[in-house]
Write a structure and sequence with these properties.
single chain; 289 residues; eight-stranded mixed sheet; 10 helices
């Protein structure tokens, strides 16, 4: 399969990176743009991207600024969804893509919601992976407890142990081989041989600067705008601590046409290659164009 490095410039001049997967079947529809979660990167989508490419779609898996091979921002307070959404607009303009289906995991789904308020005509459909306009404080507290923490490891076994510590509750059936593979997505090896998390620890700066007493932002208007763009699929992990069943019901009330898939035995966030998730994604892609 053909996978290329795609680079473009952000509106403020940062060099950004994505993985660009060419379709491996006759082209069947608009490209698919995958956007990862807070501390993750484009590697999260390497298995899903190959499946989507086999349906005849170009797939672009983004490294959000400060993650993966994208440049780090010298002004850490820029690390927020509004900035990221404008980076996606710059990607669309650089590639000449007028319309795409978006797959957003966690933070990536929030970026898609913001994008709906900026460039609604660019959204053919969207998959929200374990994210919505409301987020459970339980999951937010868990994520806030590790983001920006220790980021270096002596060995790959140590990196795998870290991956299990952070994500073990979400993937209780993973074995040692799974965690070793997981670590390869989370961690980079520098030219000097050091093993470090593949993100800028300063992405935690907006969390630290936020008023802990302030009420959470109401993203429902953004979610409604997104639902007006095209078909929406919500994928939820059955044991997710970020999206709970009451939130799902409120999302269904706000967007009655939204489809829903739940992945059993998985928390935040599904990898999207699970049968329940994949079947629903394939159905959305068939509808989105």
């Amino acid at each position: 399969m053909s996978v290329a490095d795609l680079t473009w410039s952000s509106p403020d001049g940062l060099a950004l990176h994505a993985r660009d997967y060419a379709p491996t079947a006759p082209v069947s529809g608009a490209p698919v743009i995958c956007i990862h979660g807070l501390t993750r990167n484009a590697r999260d989508f390497e298995d899903l991207a190959r499946r989507v490419a086999a349906l005849g779609r170009r797939v672009i898996a983004v490294d959000v600024r400060g993650r993966g091979r994208s440049a780090r921002d010298p002004q850490p307070l820029n690390y927020h969804p509004g900035t990221y959404a404008m980076d996606v607009v710059a990607l669309l303009e650089a590639t000449g893509i007028e319309r795409a289906t978006f797959i957003g995991t966690s933070m990536g789904g929030i970026i898609a919601m913001v994008l709906a308020s900026i460039r609604p005509e660019a959204i053919a459909g969207v998959v929200l992976n374990d994210v919505g306009p409301e987020l459970s404080p339980v999951g937010l507290a868990r994520i806030g407890g590790y983001v920006g923490g220790d980021s270096a490891f002596a060995t790959w076994d140590e990196a795998a142990a870290y991956a299990k510590t952070i994500n073990g509750a979400a993937f209780p059936d993973h074995d040692d081989a799974d965690w070793a593979a997981f670590a390869r997505r989370l961690v980079d090896e520098t030219p000097e041989g050091a093993l470090v998390l593949a993100y800028d620890p300063e992405i935690a700066a907006p969390f630290k600067a936020a008023d802990p007493e302030a009420p959470p932002a109401d993203m429902t208007p953004l979610f409604r705008a997104l639902a007006a763009c095209g078909p929406v699929l919500l994928v939820r992990g059955e044991i997710s601590d970020l999206i709970d069943p009451p939130i799902v019901e409120r999302m269904r009330a706000a967007a009655p046409a939204m489809t829903y898939a739940e992945v059993p035995g998985v928390g935040h966030a599904p990898m999207l290659t699970e049968p329940e998730a994949w079947d629903a994604i394939a159905a959305l892609l068939a509808e989105a164009d």
